[in-house]
Amino acid sequence: VRALTFEEGIAKLQEDMPEPTRGPQQAIVRPVVMGICDTDLQIMQGYSGFSGVLGHEFVGVVVDGPQEWMGQRVVADINFACGACPTCLAGDVHHCPQRTVMGIVQAHGAFAERVAVPVSNLLRVPDHVSDQDAVFTEPLAAAFEILEQVNIDDSMTTLVIGDGKLGSLCAQVLATTGATVVLWGHHQHKIDRIAKRGIQGALEPTWTGRPFDVVVEATGSKAGLQAAINAVRPRGTVVLKSTVAGAHELSLAPIVIDELRLVGSRCGPFDKALAALSDGDIDVASLIDAVYPLSDGLKALDHARRSGVMKVLLRC
Ligand SMILES: [Zn+2]
Ligand SMILES: [Zn+2]
Fold first, then answer.
1. Arithmetic mean of pLDDT over the chain
2. Backbone phi, then psi, for 165, in 5-degree steps?
3. 41 with 298: CB under 8 angstroms?
């Protein structure tokens, strides 16, 4: 099958990858639309040491598996947990120490004509949710994880630093709580895309009044964490969304002095993301910059890498 892989430090379009075989608890899915994520770009810079088929954002159709799943349009949780260890039995499958992660840790990804996925990870996509919306389920779930971790209500002020794909989704998710949301980024054209959703855009750190109750760091750069610490109020919460390869160098003293809460945040609830897309609560269409066929996957990766570009999709 055709697949976009990353091996020995090089991204390649392969025409002759072996057909994936499915284990007893797995289904074979034919991806229809796939999304290129910053994580994919980071993997190509050495993050996670991955080699194999890239990609973890997709919507597809089950072509082999249990009868009740055949022909279903699905998305899938990308954490493939063992289901049997103490962590899994406690219900925390996203942190299974034996987990593999689709297209990120020791499991082939979705930038391929077919991919194997555990049946327990599949979610049906409602008919009225388009492929181009459904493909955002995974990054949107990651944004919804913030609401699983931090109580946010309409009395609170929040700041999202970073106007990229994830920052834009985080800002929209925060806005569903009724909280005040400011999105701080460097690109007017990106901020304009979602400012219409009741989110205030800021090109400079010039907000007045109290610092924010909650600051979400979604810059994908090392400078973001420092900026977040500078913008949060004493006893406020900083949510870290960037998985930047490399080490940070910053003083931790303000975290102690101001008694800040620092919350790492990764994958989230797929069901809530899908429900929000189904209800039309989140605008993802305006984040799409380009769609390429899988056969032009290398061109698509180049496009996604350009500065200022939001979501680039692949189609199969
Ligand atoms: Zn992603
Ligand atoms: Zn486990």
1. 93
2. -60, -55
3. no
How many angstroms separate the alpha carbon of residue 227 from the centre of ligand 1? 23
Is 208's pLDDT higher than 90?
no
Q: Got the DSSP string for 37-87?
A: -HHHHHHTTTGGG--EE---EEEEEEEES-GGGTT-EEEE-SEE--S-SHH
| Distance from Cα 138 to the centre of ligand 1, integer Å | 6
Those residues with Cβ within 8 angstroms of residue 154's Cβ, 6 or more apart along the chain or in another chain: 177, 178, 179
Calculate how far, in angstroms, residue 83's C-alpha sits from the geometric centre of ligand 2: 5
The residue among 65, 59, 33 whose CA lies nearest residue 273 is: 59
CA angle 109, 292, 294 (to 5 degrees): 40
- Measure 101 CA to ligand 2 centroid, in angstroms: 12
Question: Reduced to 3 states, what is the DSSP secondary structure of residue 184?
Answer: strand
pTM for the model: 0.93
> How far, in Å, is the centroid of ligand 2 from the Cα of 138?
20
The strand pair at 122-124 and 200-202 is best described as unpaired
Ligand 1 centre distance from Cα of residue 108 (Å): 14
Mean per-residue pLDDT, 103-130? 97
Give the model's pLDDT for residue 244: 65
pLDDT for residue 177: 95
Protein residues placing their CB within 5 Å of the ion ligand 1:
37, 39, 57, 139
The b-or-e profile of 273-287 (16+ CB within 10 A means b, else e) is: bbebbeeeebbbeeb
Beta-sheet pairing, 157-161 with 180-184: parallel
User: In this predicted structure, what is the pLDDT of residue 202?
Assistant: 84
Q: Residue range 64-92: average pLDDT?
A: 96
Summarised one tens digit per residue, pLDDT across range 213-262 is 999 999 878 788 889 999 999 999 999 998 765 677 888 899 999 999 99
Q: How far is the CA of 84 from the centre of ligand 2 (A)?
A: 5
The mean per-residue pLDDT over the stretch 91-101 comes to 95
Q: Which-ligand-closest: CA of 83?
A: 2
